[in-house]
Specification:
alpha/beta; 14 helices; single chain; six-stranded mixed sheet
């Protein structure tokens, strides 16, 4: 879907991207992380030609991106950023409909697509369709921004720290929604963040940049279990790697079927990290576990969690 071949970019005497080579396959959710100034946002903007690369090649759908007119290229890519960038004097519906209308969709098709996306992102269409951005909370505005990026069913979704300014509860909800969108749609997503926990939660692969160069590429588990350098270990947080590993697996992987324990059950889909935290908070060694229908199916034992191998 996207290929970087020895790509470089400099601003005056500062190198932002240095000899980056990377292939992103169709349907992947790739998260680019790094410290401030590492080049991660520049790398994203190179893909849709918001910034032009100096060296190397960037391929999109097997074509060098400079063979596309910038506007044509961008209409095939959804783009969501932290500052959202909604048009303040347009309604929610008009904002979401921006690209479909540019592409000449019929009014009925546009309206149906807006309704579909608003429902997907928990924005009740009849309540929010005619509202303006200033009438929305920050989380609602960000949902509109994501809906607008998805509106024309783009080949790829580019996201530059889209949830960085949100409160933890709203951020958690939007991360959950985005993971669900990726799972159901198979959309290719290139996502930038400085938050390692966000990367571990969302990515099928993580790319860590430092001073414009790729330090390591791999799955969340590979980053935690096999960090390439001390820099990687420090970045992911070497002191709590074990806790982060528990966040990668669900309770379902360790549930003891048909056993019982007192208390409020936790869901099968909860992570082992959540299970351990809940057990500590309750002072319990075992917790009941329920399926999606709320039926208790077994227990999770704290000893099984702490003995689990990476």
């Amino acid at each position: 879907m996207i290929t970087f071949e020895h790509v470089g970019k400099a601003f005056a005497d500062r190198v932002a991207i240095d000899d980056v080579s990377l292939s992103i396959g169709k349907g992947e959710f790739v998260v680019v992380i790094g410290r401030s100034g590492s080049g991660k946002s520049t790398m994203l903007k190179l893909v849709n030609r918001m910034v032009e690369h100096d060296r190397g090649r960037i391929l999109f759908a097997d074509e060098e991106i400079r063979r596309f007119e910038p506007e044509t290229l961008r209409r095939r890519m959804g783009y969501a950023i932290q500052s959202i960038g909604l048009f303040p004097h347009w309604t929610v519906e008009q904002n979401i409909a921006t690209v479909p209308e540019l592409l000449g969709w019929t009014r009925a098709r546009v309206r149906d697509r807006v309704t579909e996306l608003m429902e997907l992102l928990d924005l009740a269409p009849e309540a929010y369709r005619r509202r303006y951005p200033h009438q929305l909370s920050g989380g609602q505005q960000q949902r509109v921004g994501v809906a607008r990026a998805l509106a024309a069913d783009p080949d790829i979704l580019l996201m530059d720290e889209p949830f960085g300014s949100l409160d933890p509860v709203t951020r958690d909800a939007l991360q959950h929604q985005l993971a669900g969108i990726h799972q159901t749609s198979g959309k290719t997503i290139l996502f930038v963040t400085h938050d390692i926990d966000e990367a571990l939660r969302l990515a099928t692969r993580i790319v860590l940049l430092d001073r414009g160069r790729i330090v390591q590429v791999g799955t969340a588990r590979e980053f935690l279990v096999h960090p390439a350098t001390d820099f990687v270990s420090d970045f992911v947080g070497r002191s709590d790697i074990g806790i982060k590993l528990l966040g990668l697996d669900a309770v379902a992987s360790l549930v003891r079927r048909d056993e019982t324990a007192p208390g409020e059950p936790i869901p099968l889909t909860a992570t082992l990290r959540v299970a351990l935290s809940t057990a500590i908070a309750r002072g319990a060694a075992r917790l009941p576990v329920a399926d999606a229908d709320g039926r208790t199916v077994g227990v999770i034992d704290v000893g099984d969690v702490t003995r689990r191998r990476p």
